[in-house]
Backbone:
């Protein structure tokens, strides 16, 4: 059974940083492109970033380019999202996902 469990969310002031983690199990993690997505009441569910198998290629939605970094550790079946210079509009529930499955999410709140 595919399982994705996110952690690392919380409250942070604008300009702050958070690092999200996701532990994956139940599938051949190293062969999958992995994604971070987010959902907020005002914006709906949106894709944030992706990292392809091997970890050498990444891609981001323009609003987070240069501030967020997606990475993976295939030896540990872990996916990460380093988020810097956070803005109030980054407030959302963040999800780790494959193309078809996502975890339960972790809440990120950016406010002063």
Residues:
């Amino acid at each position: 059974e595919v399982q994705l469990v996110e952690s690392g969310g919380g409250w942070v002031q604008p300009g702050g940083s958070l690092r999200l983690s996701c532990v994956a199990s139940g599938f051949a993690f190293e062969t999958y492109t992995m994604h971070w997505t987010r959902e907020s009441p005002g914006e709906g569910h949106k894709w944030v970033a992706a990292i392809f198998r091997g970890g050498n290629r990444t891609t981001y939605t323009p609003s987070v380019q240069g501030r967020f970094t997606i990475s993976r550790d295939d030896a540990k079946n872990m996916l990460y999202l380093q988020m810097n210079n956070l803005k109030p509009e980054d407030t959302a529930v963040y999800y780790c996902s494959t193309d078809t499955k996502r975890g339960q999410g972790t809440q990120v709140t950016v406010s002063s």
